[in-house]
Amino acid sequence: MSIEIGQQAPDFTLKNQHGEEVTLSSLRGKPVVVVFYPFAFTGVCTGELCELRDNLADLTADGAEILAISCDSPFTLRVFADREGYAFSLLSDHWPHGATAQAYGVFNEQVGAAVRGTFVLDAEGVVRWKVENGLPDARSLEDYRSALAAL
Prior knowledge:
Order of helices and strands: EEEHHEHEHEEEEH
CATH superfamily: Glutaredoxin
Number of domains: 1
CATH architecture: 3-Layer(aba) Sandwich
Shape: globular
Number of helices: 5
Largest sheet: 5 strands, mixed
Strand order of the largest sheet: 5-4-3-8-9
Radius of gyration: 14 Å
CATH topology: Glutaredoxin
CATH class: Alpha Beta
Number of strands: 9
Helix content: 25-40%
């Protein structure tokens, strides 16, 4: 079951591409954009994350944090981040496999990966905007901007 607008976002602790643990609740006090994506090194995922990379200053101007989550291993995410120049955290939901995506209701059991779910959280960790797209459907960067501007 998906997390709904107005609900507290489930907390998690996941390793980023540098092997550092990132805990969602430690980011309270600032908006957070939680971006689930299926797989590193795939066309649509790379395109979406490159769009975030290219607009990062804009999206984080008011102190927002971007957390991109996939079921890939931290080692894969390190190579992916280095290759593409991502300066935001790529978090590994590899083990237990997809547990965080499942908690947010965006895990596709048949594929073994998250669908394209994005959750914009306010400074208290409450979901204020969300979108869930299927595997082949990219999300709109303008929607992210609008959601952050509304906080």
